[in-house]
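look at this one:
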Amino acid sequence: MTEKRLAAGELNYPGIGSTEHGRPPEGYPCLVTQTYLGEGPALYRRVAQGILAWELQRRSGLRVRTESDVVVPGARVVSGFGVGPFRINAPCEVVWVRRPVPGEGPQSAGFGYGTLPGHPERGEEAFEVEIDAQGRVFLKITAFSRHANWFYQAGGLVARAAQRHVTSRYIEGAHQLAAGES
């Protein structure tokens, strides 16, 4: 018996995994956003735990349906925004995960996921929390993408504005996690 997947199809872009250790594929604009969250290993671990439990997506106002309550490689997630017939669903698959390691030295934790058929974009996005040697904690969001079809390409300015808006909501969610807000 085969398990029914939350979203159909395969990853639909070149450079799978590039948000973890590489450059985006040619022709795919890349956006990197980094934000200071605070200081200390407790804050780092709190934010890492939230990222690895889909909290940035939920706190950004997206409706999140996933195959796993925690982020694991290969898990599929469909996040959506909008209302009723104006809802846009964005199916993705987790392509890499990095969990916190014991100790207090510099490290990062997070994950990257890539687009599946039905997503308005083709590309990858990663969410990482980093702690440096001085104990400073940062959220880093890396995304590379192109519009999936002519319809989304025609609304390019609106799509990019929506991406900036969602990124700002992710940052707000990270600040909530850093502050220990439920």
Observations:
- The two ends are 39 Å apart (CA to CA).
- The longest strand covers residues 136-147.
- The mean pLDDT is 87.
- DSSP finds five helices and seven strands in the chain.
